[in-house]
Amino acid sequence: MTLVQLKYVITVAGSNSLNDAAKALFISQPSLSSAIRSLENEVGFDIFIRSKNGITLTTKGAEFIGYAKSVMEQYELLDAKYISHTKVKKTFSVSMQHYTFAVNAFVELVKQFGMDEYEFEIHETKTYEVIENVKNHKSEVGILYINDYNRSVLTKIFTDAGLQFEPLLECGIYVYMWKNHPLANAKELTLEDLEEYPCLGFAQGEHNSFYFAEEVLSTYQYKRFIRANDRATLLNLMVGLNGYTLCSGIICEELNGEDYCAIKLKSEEKMTIGYIAVKNAAISKIGQKYLEEISKFKDKTLE
Hints:
Blueprint: H1 3-13, H2 18-25, H3 29-43, E1 48-51, E2 54-57, H4 59-83, E3 90-96, H5 100-113, E4 118-124, H6 127-135, E5 141-146, H7 151-160, E6 163-171, E7 174-178, E8 188-189, E9 199-202, E10 225-228, H8 231-241, E11 245-247, H9 253-256, E12 260-265, E13 271-278, H10 285-295
Parallel strand pairs: 3-4, 3-5, 8-12, 9-10
Antiparallel strand pairs: 1-2, 5-13, 6-13, 7-11, 7-12
């Protein structure tokens, strides 16, 4: 096994096809295919599945790529410090459902580590894309929730993608609305109390199964329901239409401001917010620190 081979498989894993990877590596496709086959024979399993539709990682292959990336990153740091004497920035990328606290944790991470030695990426996006980004190594970790309703389906999806879910926060269900909403002074609310006001949710695009919904109680028959693509629009609809959304109750006034509040929903439902990562892959030091920052919000849950 050589560093060149590791570089090849990492490039292929991030490409749409062998041909695209070969062009990026400035080698011929047959040479690239031969190098990958040689590595697969050496490790004793297929890293990729080849089909007429392209090339995808196997479960073991996804795990292997995670380790390969760690090795290459360490090599590049060694090379930069002792051989080429250049500065190489370490990278960290996270994908997440629309959670202000997860963005807040990212902000704290950047403040602590700075941007001189690190390059950061944050993707606040749809549930399906969170899973795909981690599966395809676009992000090291993905932040999302599971509950009794979606647990079995999402767990199977994680397993099939070579991912594992680890819990971080346990939360009840809260109604999030602006402070001038007619019901904003209530101590507790029911869905019947909210019937005349529009429930707001995040659009999931073509992957709009109830199991991918970011809001719990997704199968409830709401009288009025509006979907939006981003958090800023959702907040505007709360003000303009007295809308509301269902959430974990973790409030981040530092980012959303002080104009919104969370009120307990009368429900036995719980949600487990956690992270997904490639199964058995080591989380980087900065990734571990990010997860620690999110875990600090245990003290801010409204239970």
